[in-house]
TrEMBL record:
Top-level taxon in the UniProt lineage: Bacteria
SUPFAM superfamilies from the UniProt entry: lambda repressor-like DNA-binding domains, Periplasmic binding protein-like I
Stored Pfam families: LacI, Peripla_BP_3
CDD domains the record matches: HTH_LacI, PBP1_PurR
The HTH lacI-type domain, residue ranges: 2-56
InterPro entries, per the entry: HTH_LacI (IPR000843), LacI/GalR-like_sensor (IPR046335), Lambda_DNA-bd_dom_sf (IPR010982), Peripla_BP_I (IPR028082), PurR_sensor_dom (IPR057343)
Name of the protein this chain belongs to: Ribose operon repressor
Keywords: DNA-binding, Repressor, Transcription, Transcription regulation
Origin species: Limnobaculum xujianqingii
GO molecular-function terms, A-Z: DNA-binding transcription factor activity; transcription cis-regulatory region binding
Length: 333
């Protein structure tokens, strides 16, 4: 691989002159410039991005740690992050933790070795690695998305899950449903608990009973929705409406209902959460609680860059407002 010294030797100039031409930071005569550019082309020389970043003390690279999941919601958020990075001239290094503490530590170490300018963490569960991160790298800009509260100093984006859970359940109640079940995520997941709490509050406010058998902790995956719905259908008095706390599990719920010879929207109402792209293509199209995935990614990058540019100094909590999207999976009871 050609070096700057090789270019200088071929062009018959000093390496500093080659550097001035490549970085365009000092006047060089057109004759000398042409010689250097010709040598660059002949040697197929590419300046080292790493070397330039070390000199500038920035890499224009953002790191992102993501929990492994079949949930398309995560993929859509990552797409928004990637697009925002590209628009702002940054590169994104994405690491999938597979929900494994050891792998997360290794991935975090890799990102720090790459000298990323900032980090976006989007993981389901609280992880001790986060405490180590903030102890050893207190000045590294970090934005947390979809993670449990912890003691680190960083910016946090929350989706107002409790409000979203209430909104979904209140909508089912407004359509005349009383026997309403809730399928939520893992018991140790903050968003799962908050969406369940929203369901519980809405049921209590309406004077409705929410039996424990109607409240199921699952895994936020397709399979979790299928298994949870199959369990609900075996009850002596199955529910007539299901609040599924993400759209991925709603896919599994649809399958279980269809396998039982029932129809979504007619025999059993289903409402989801996230409004992933797939939701409007399901049959029938899924009523759900909207989260703006592209806007979420843009907000994470904007917040990170504001901190990099010293526009903000104190940690902030940014809250998204959930919105109901009505489609055809909820009829009237």
């Amino acid at each position: 691989m050609a070096t700057m010294k090789d270019v200088a030797r071929l062009a018959g100039v000093s390496t500093s002159t080659v550097s001035h031409v490549i970085n365009n930071n000092r006047f060089v005569s057109q004759l000398v410039r042409d010689k250097i550019l010709s040598a660059v082309a002949e040697l197929n020389y590419s300046p080292s991005a790493v070397a330039r970043s070390l000199k500038a003390k920035e890499t224009r690279t953002i790191g992102m740690l993501l929990t492994s999941s079949n949930n398309p919601f995560y993929a859509e958020v990552v797409r928004g992050v990637e697009e925002s990075c590209y628009e702002r001239g940054y590169s994104l290094i994405l690491c999938n933790t597979e929900g494994n503490t050891e792998r997360m530590g290794s991935s975090l170490e890799t990102l720090l070795q790459r000298r990323v300018d900032g980090l976006i963490l989007m993981c389901n569960d609280r992880n001790p690695i986060s405490e180590v991160l903030f102890c050893h790298y207190p000045n590294l800009p970090v934005v947390m998305m979809d993670w449990a509260p912890f003691n680190g100093v960083c910016d946090t984006i929350q989706d107002n899950s409790l409000i979203g859970g209430k909104l979904a359940t209140e909508y089912l109640i407004s359509r005349g449903y009383h026997r309403i079940a809730c399928i939520t995520g893992p018991q140790d997941n903050t968003q799962a608990r908050r969406r369940l709490q929203g369901y519980q509050q809405a049921m209590e406010n309406a004077g409705l009973i929410a039996p424990e058998s109607y409240q199921i902790f699952s895994n936020f995956e397709f399979s979790g929705g299928l298994e949870a719905m199959q369990q609900l259908l075996t009850l002596p008095e199955p529910p007539k409406a299901i609040f599924t706390c993400n759209d991925a599990m709603a896919v599994g719920v649809y399958l279980a209902i269809n396998q039982a010879g029932l129809k979504v929207g007619q025999d059993i109402a289903v409402i989801g959460y996230d409004d992933i792209e797939l939701a409007k293509f399901m049959s029938p199209p899924l009523t759900t609680i909207h989260q703006p995935t592209d806007a979420l990614g843009k907000l994470a990058i904007d917040t990170l860059l504001q901190r990099l540019e010293k526009q903000i100094t104190e940690p902030r909590t940014l809250e998204l407002t959930p919105e109901l999207v009505e489609r055809d999976s909820v009829g009237s009871c």
